[in-house]
Amino acid sequence: MKGIDHRKYVFNTYYKRLCLFAHKLVGDIDMAEDIVQDAIFSYFNKEDEVSSDPSVILQYLYSSVRFMVYNKYRRDKIHEKYWEQNPFKEMDEYSLENEITYVEALTKIQEIIATMPQACATIFRMGYLEELSNKEIAESLNISINTVKTQKQRGMKILLTKLDPEYLPFLSFLFLG
Amino acid sequence: MNNNEPFKTAELLIRFLRNELSQEEDLLFKKWLNEDPRNRDLLNRFKDKRYYYEDLLQMNKIDLDEAWDRNQRKLKLETYRSIKRRMLYVAASVIFVLAGTLSVLKMKARYDKEVVEETVAVMHDVEAASAGANLLLADGTSYSLQSDLLSVRNKNLYTDEDQKDQLIFQEKINSDKLVYNTLEVPKAKYFKMQLPDGTWVWINSLSSLQFPIEFVGDERKVFLKGEAYFEVAHDENKPFIVESGDTKIQVLGTSFNINAYSESIHTTLAEGSVSIDNGKTALVLRPGEMARSAEGEIKREKVDLDYVLAWVNNEFVFKNDNILTIATQLASWYGVQVKFNGEINYNKTYTGAISRQVNLSEAVRMLQFASDLVFEIKDNNLIIKKGGQ
Predict the structure, then answer these.
(1) Contacts of residue B307 in chain A, CB cutoff 8 Å?
(2) Looking at the domain B69-126+310-389, which fold is it?
(3) What is the span of the domain harbouring residue A125?
(4) Number of structural domains, chain A?
C-alpha cells in the first residue's frame, strides 16, 4: 500500500488524459470514463507489483486502458448495437502511439494554463474557454480593457513564448487580439 | 508499447510549438515528421481549432472530484463485500464505512437482498451546512457573507460571489498599525479564506478567526476560537502564530489543524513542523502527531490524519466514537438540537465515514442502517431512540 495520497495523486494526474485517450478509441466519453475508472481501480489493486516510477505507472495505465478497450470490443455482446453505430477503429501500434503523443502534448498545454497566476488564469479562461470579448470580460470583472489585455498577454507569455501563429490558432488569436 | 517514444515525441512537439527546439532536437523532430504521413496529420491537429480546442474543452469538462468519489465509493463497496465474506462483524463496533452516499446504499441493496429498506421518520428534512460567515471589520461595519471565500490582498478584502472577485473593503488610510477584523462562522456554516500573506484557512462551524488586513511587524499573528485548518505560506523571516486561549502555535510554513472548541486545545500537524507554547511548557510536533494543551500541560500523541482532517475533506469520519460524539458533530453541522429518548447504550462505538454533503435524513439513514438506534427528524430536532430489535 502506498497510501491514499499517492492514489489521489495518481488519479488526479492521469485521469483526464486517460479519458481523452479512451475517448479517441471508443468515441463515447461516458464509456471512456467507465473504462478509465476500471483501469485505475485495477492498478490500485496491483500497485505494489508496479514500479513507483511515474513514467512506468503512466505507461502501465495507457496499456491497461488499451487492453480494456479491446476486451470490451471483443466480448461485449450486449453492446453490439452500440458498436455498430460507433465503429471501433482497430488501430495499429503506430496510430495508437500517435494518440498517446497527442494526448500527452495536449495535457502539457493544459498544465501550462494551470500554472498561471489566478487573476491571469481567470481572464484567460473567460477569453479562451468561454469566448468572451475583452470588453465583456472588462465589464464583468469591473476592470479596464487594458488590464484584460495585459493579463491575457501575461497568460500567453506563460503558455507559448514565441508561438508560431500558424499553430494553436485560437490561442494565438487571443495573444494578438 | 514502444516505451518512452510517445512521451518523448510529445515533449518535442510542445517545444516545437513554443519554438524552443535546439538544432539537434529540430533534426529529430523533422525526422519524426517525415517518417510517416500520420505524423504530419498529428501536427496539423494543432492548426485546427475544432480539433485540439474541442479536446481541451472535453478535458476541462471532466469532473475530477466526482470521478474520484466514484473511485472511492467503489473501493468502499469492495471492502465491505470482502469483509462481509469473511464474516468479520464485531458485535461491539458496527461498520458503516460502506455507506458513503445514498447511491451506495442503493447499490448495496441490489447486491445484498437481505438488506431491509431503512426508514427514518422525517418531518422536515435538514440540509447540510452551507458556506457563509459574518465579517466584523475593525471600523465597526459588518457583512453577512454567503459566498465560500474571502481573500485579503493589498489591503483590500474580496469575496468570491459566483467565482468573481468582488471588492467589499478597501483600506483608505495607509496606517502601519495592526488592526484586527473578525470572521465568525455560525452553526451549520463553513468558510474558507486567504490571509494577506497567502495563507489559506478553512474555518469550521461555530468558530471565529481574528485577522489583520496586513501583517505589520516581524510576525504574522491571528486569533482562533473553535476549529480551523491552516495551510501556511512559507516566510522564514515572519513566523506565523495562532493564538488560542493561553496556547500559542508558531510555524514558518506548514499545514495543521487546531481544534479549540473546548478548554483542551488540540493541534494536529499534517506537514512541516510547529511549536506549541502555553507559557509553561513548549514542544515541537512532527507530522502525524497531535498535541493536547490544557491547564499548563501539553501532551503529545500519534493520530490518524484522515480522522482529524475529515471535516476539511468534507466528511464525517468516526473511529470508535460513541453516539454522543457523533450526535454533537451532526448537531453543529446541520444546526439541529439532539434529544435522546429512553435507554441508550453510550458505550457502544461506531466506525465509519459519511459525506458531509448529504441531507440530515440521509446521514441518519446510514447511521440507522449500521446501529440499533432509531432516528427521527422533527422541527429542527434530531431525536435518537433505542431500536425495537
Answers:
(1) none
(2) Phage tail protein beta-alpha-beta fold (3.55.50)
(3) 115-176
(4) 2
Question: What CATH number does the domain containing A150 carry?
Answer: 1.10.10
- Look at residues B280, B276, B351, B359 and name the one whose alpha carbon lies nearest to residue B321: B351
Interface contact flag, B64 A105, Cβ < 8 Å: no
Distance (Å, whole) CA B361 – CA B127: 9
pLDDT at position A158 is: 66
Question: The CATH number of B130-308 is which of 2.60.120.1440, 3.40.50.150, 3.40.50.10490, 3.40.50.2000?
Answer: 2.60.120.1440
Q: Which residues make beta-bridge pairs with B258?
A: B228, B267
ipTM, 2 dp = 0.77
Assess whether A142 and A97 both reside in one domain: no
Whole-number Å distance between alpha carbons of B333 and B336: 8
Residue B59 has pLDDT above 70, yes or no: yes
Nearest Cα to B209, choosing from B130, B154, B135?
B135
CB within 8 Å: A167 and B2: no
Same structural domain for residues A80 and A157?
no
Give the pLDDT confidence score for residue B124 in this predicted structure.
66
What pLDDT digit, counting tens, does each position of A43-62 carry?
Answer: 988 888 878 788 888 988 99
Q: What mean pLDDT comes out for the span B67-94? A: 56
CA–CA gap between residue A1 and residue A44 (Å, rounded): 9
User: In 10 A of CB B176, how many CB atoms?
Assistant: 7
| A9-41 pLDDT, tens digit each | 899 999 999 999 999 888 888 889 999 999 998
Chain B nearest-CA distance from A33, in A, is 8
